[in-house]
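Section 3.1: Structural characterization of target chains.
Under the original work plan, the team committed to producing a structural model for every single-chain target entering the pipeline before any wet-lab resources were allocated. The record below documents one such target. The sequence was received from the expression subgroup and is listed exactly as submitted; it comprises 549 residues.
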Amino acid sequence: MQRKTFKTSETVDFIVVGSGASGGIMARELARAGNSVVVMEQGPRLDAHEFEHDELKYRNLSGITNNPATNPQTFRNTEDQKAAKVSGRNPLTYARVVGGSSSHFNANFWRLHEIDFIERSRLGAIEGADLVDWPITYAELEPYYTKVEWEVGVSGLAGASPFDPWRSKPYPMPPLPVKSSGVLFERGAKKLGLHPFPAPMAINSVLYKDRPPCIQCGLCGGFACEVKAKSSSVWTVIPEAEATRRCEVRAESYVFRIGMNKAGRATGVYYYDRDRKEQFQNARAVVVCANGAETPRLLLNSATGSAPQGLANSSGAVGRYLMFNKGGGAMARFEHPLNEYKGANVTRIMHDFYDSDPKRGFYGGGGFDARSGGPLTWGQSVPKGTPNWGPEFKEYLESYTYWMNCSGHGTSLAVESNRVDIDPDLKDAWGLPAIRVTHKDHPDDTKHAKWQVERAAEIMDAAGAKQIVPGEIGEATGGVHLLGTCRMGNDPATSVIDKYHRTHDVRNLFLCDGSSMVTSGRGQPTQTIEALAFRAADHIAKFARTGDI
């Protein structure tokens, strides 16, 4: 199929910045509603055969993620410190490729629960944090969670957990086959009276929408799926958007500023093309879906004389309230090989400890799963007390197939001083101001993560582990779940966007990605981000039809 293209001089209805979990959905929905759409993606468009099983390239050498050599970032714990680059890596990790981070994610798909949207009302204020309710409810988002599962493709078993929120429809596919770690996790959890269940995953377990089932290659986390079984936007909604003949996906197009006119309206975006030449694409409206790091960065780099703090930032909230999903777990070695290098990363999870329980003495809740890592990743996770050389190190490497992880995934509190902003000195390879991260864990997040370590060790002990290595909990120095940095809310003085994802300050500028989230949820935000995108697209398309943009 010959793909649709637009001239930069043409004024399209919408520009969507970013082609990941939310951007792909936004593009498809707006194009299907009859709008002309250009999707801007900084990274290249790769064919399925170009995604190799190369652990060094993809897990260690920024094969498709933001490379610290060309896209550097700095980090500090508090605002009175001088931020510095972190050796060999970026604090915030995300893909730069068509499909965004939906290309290389683990594909864990958890819905938020009803409590996530109303925790401030239920729990009250928490000292040192800015916990607030969402301006929408689970009931408002539930139809869109269902739409994600059926339109994008999710495998799972409805009703398998007594703690799951209500749903209007079952999953479209049965769960993936259970692997050894799932069997052992289930054994240990049930022995403790807990309720493990099949993991909902955005990976095909059967043929679905002309995409094959998982081939059990074992390389999901950090890797794109070359057989298209993983429900990444590059294999799902983006081709459907292009099939409308009203959508162009413009790869290797690095948006660096949003154009504005004297009337205070967005007019399009400035970007560097694949030859690093500056271009401008005209549009009637702009939707930024660039992720919880790049969306605030773009707004801050789009400051104007009338918006000196950054675009859509009259509240001062752009970039603030950064959340990561902090968690804790344990490694466990068993007496027999588990062969965890095969299969999807996760096949069993548990939500018994999802809610925050005041009896624990701190805020926090979350879920647990059983998972593994690749051999190279494993070799870099040497347990404390094990040498990094010699016979003991070799024995540890050779024991790879005997190990698994019990991983906890939890809450991170919104703290105003935790933020993404612009480094005053560092520039990227295009000469643009780089991202500066300021983050220090809230004490309750650390307490909860340590509590999860204890629970994980108990589960592995009950499962019969021969050796257990509890995880060490320190200060977070980065993350992959980038949440809350352009939070939604009803009050323009304390939030960046309204409940329809329209910025309070610029009527034809919308934001939709992890930055929109008000609370962090319990560890797996992608399905919520995609549900928000379907919901936002419905409203934005309606605004376009009624001339309300």
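Residues 443-462 form the longest helix (20 residues).
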